[in-house]
Design brief:
It is a single chain. This protein has helices at about 20-25, 45-60, 80-85, 105-120, 135-140, 140-145, 160-165, 180-190, 205-220, 230-240, 245-260, 275-290; strands at about 10-15, 35, 65-70, 95, 130-135, 150-155, 195, 225, 265-270, 270-275. By secondary structure, the protein is an alpha/beta fold. It has two domains: about 10-240, Phosphoenolpyruvate-binding domains (TIM Barrel, Alpha-Beta Barrel), CATH 3.20.20.60; about 245-295, no CATH class. Helix 9 (about 205-220) links the parallel strand 7 (about 195) and strand 8 (about 225). Bound molecules: (3S)-citryl-Coenzyme A and magnesium ion. (3S)-citryl-Coenzyme A binds next to strand 1, helix 1 and helix 7.
Amino acid sequence: MAQNRTRKRRTMLYIPGNNPGMLQQGSVYGADSVLLDLEDAVALNQKDAARTLVRNIVKSINFYNCEVTVRLNHTDTPFGDADLEEIVPLQPDAVRFPKTESVEDLKKLIDRIEEIENKHNLPHDKMSIHAMIETAKGVRNVFEIAEYSKRVDAITIGGQDLTADMNIVKTKDNAGIDYARKQIVMAAKANRIDCIDTVYADVDDDEGLKEETLYIKKIGFTGKAVINPRQIDIVNNVFMPTEAEIRKAAKVYRGWIDAKRRNLGVFAIDGKMVDAPVMARAKYVLDMAEIDLSSFE
Ligand SMILES: CC(C)(COP(=O)(O)OP(=O)(O)OC[C@H]1O[C@@H](n2cnc3c(N)ncnc32)[C@H](O)[C@@H]1OP(=O)(O)O)[C@@H](O)C(=O)NCCC(=O)NCCSC(=O)C[C@@](O)(CC(=O)O)C(=O)O
Ligand SMILES: [Mg+2]
């Protein structure tokens, strides 16, 4: 779980929990994670049916390398506890907890999860928790939320709800949630966990999605939620290093191995200083590109 995880989460595909066709096909499109949704994609009169369907899908479908995450209803809603009772015994890779506002919210959630795990003789360190920040109060408390428990291995932002909670007009550049995005990134980075950006609602605007993904990558997000298979390649490609970046990183890494042999802490490549942080960035690029570092030794 959590800090030992090496799996990438560039794309997390939301799938409405009451749509059997989409649920069955969800893992074939190349998303790193599927997000089986019991919350806002499901109408109130469909909640029970969706929960049963998601339970059966998680039990019976092989998602292969795709991470399986279930978005629960909040524990303060009439559906939250029933979701936990059905989903926790299945131990999906993670549960996504919407509208997390405080550590009290998380404590209540984790205590209940662990109670159910104890009842079923399940470990407490397998299924992780993704805390969604979707209100101004959650943004204010995100640092405490991110460090509260090792089970929290990602912080995510829900831009639609946050915009509504702040009672602001949603613009294409999402200026109104920029502060929140950056605060969420900092809280995640301070705890060395993932931070996942909100969805891009216009599924026909490929250029807009690419532009937004380039921006959120630049400010530190490690992935983005998507709502349609057509969005997956666009986001995955933005999060993959370019060929030029890989070539440069490989050069730095090779130089670093050589420098270590010569007991040098700092050296230059093409006239530019290379020190430990430059090497760490190069290593991250090679890791994202899934290049085996032992091939450089
Ligand atoms: C948007 C649209 C209606 C477009 O429909 P369209 O019909 O135009 O789609 P097409 O492209 O024509 O579909 C072509 C083929 O792909 C299949 N297919 C489509 N979508 C698929 C999918 N998601 N999973 C698997 N399969 C899929 C489809 O079945 C078809 O299959 P086939 O018939 O076999 O060819 C549809 O995609 C959709 O419903 N998306 C999910 C919406 C959703 O979950 N919303 C809730 C999460 S956000 C939220 O809650 C806000 C947040 O909380 C969160 C945050 O930000 O994190 C906040 O506060 O901000
Ligand atoms: Mg939301």
